[in-house]
Amino acid sequence: MRLYGRIWCRQKFNRNTNRRMSAISIDSRGIPSEWGDQTERLKIVKVAQYSDEWTTVKSQFKTTLSSANITNIFRIQNRMLWKSYIQEKSRLLRKNKGEVNEKQLFHGTRKNAPSLIYNGEEGFEMRLAGDGMWGQANYFAVNASYSDDYAFVQDGVRAIFLVSVLTGKSCKMEPDRSLRIPPEIPRPTVKGDSVRSTLPYAKRRYDSVNGFTNGSEVYMTYDNRKSYPTYLINYQK
């Protein structure tokens, strides 16, 4: 645990993707292999029930929403959003020397229709994000049960996203509603090296913030590029 300013930040570096779901398979064109020969800017594909893809998404969802009945799973294939996401992933690979920490997390849109995200130019839009326990950010949860409280509901059918999120170097923090950007990474120190401590230092920030609330670990990103709406899950309770 490190203390700088008024912020307690426990560093959480993990090179692995979320254990519940493997990383997305990318083909030679730089797009997910499941997309096929897509030429449209946006394509919404209904995932075949009982397929390996369906079973994988369902398994992660059912871990914390076992009583819910999934009616449909849709794969979101937005070329513009995907390109932005992959560019950010490449930037993090360079910035963090290979550490991107890509996770599959849940997100509910509440009163906003999911189409505003998967059919938009920005995807998860920071300018429309509300103030939460960790400030103005895009919030994503490990547990589907957390995002269920924020599900979009229409004609009795609920909807939440399963999102690919680049958490990078993530700072574990207590709630802080004043946050608008991740905190700075402390300057590394070397014992007995007084000269080095006086040299100019390029400040760097964490890529995301994480914490625990309402029974789930949550991750917050403070820009639009670190998340991609991979699946939209429709279900009933």
Give the structure's gist in a few sentences.
The chain is α+β, with helices and mostly antiparallel strands and 237 residues long. It contains four helices and 14 strands.
Order of helices and strands: EEEHEHEHEEEHEEEEEE
User: What class do helices, strands and sheet pairing give?
Assistant: alpha+beta
Estimate percent helicity.
Answer: 10-25%
Q: How many E strands?
A: 14
For the largest beta-sheet, the strand count, sense and barrel status come to: 6 strands, mixed
Radius of gyration: 19 Å
CATH topology: Phosphoenolpyruvate Carboxykinase, domain 3
CATH class: Alpha Beta
- How many structurally independent domains? 1
Unreliably modeled segments: 1-7, 11-22
Fraction of residues in β-strands: 25-35%
> What is the count of helical runs?
4
GO molecular function: NAD+ poly-ADP-ribosyltransferase activity; NAD+-protein mono-ADP-ribosyltransferase activity
EC number: 2.4.2.-
InterPro entries: ARTD-AVP, Poly(ADP-ribose)pol_cat_dom
Organism: Geodia barretti (Barrett's horny sponge)
Detailed description of the structure:
It is an enzyme of class 2 (transferase). The protein is globular. The model is unreliable at 1-7 and 11-22 (pLDDT under 50). It has 237 residues and is an alpha+beta fold. The chain has one domain (41-173, 205-237): Phosphoenolpyruvate Carboxykinase, domain 3. The strands form three sheets. The chain has a six-stranded mixed beta sheet. Strands 3, 4, 5, 9, 10 and 14 form a six-stranded antiparallel beta sheet that branches. The longest helix is centred in the middle third of the chain and has 17 residues, at 79-95. It has four helices and 14 strands. It is 16% helix and 32% strand.
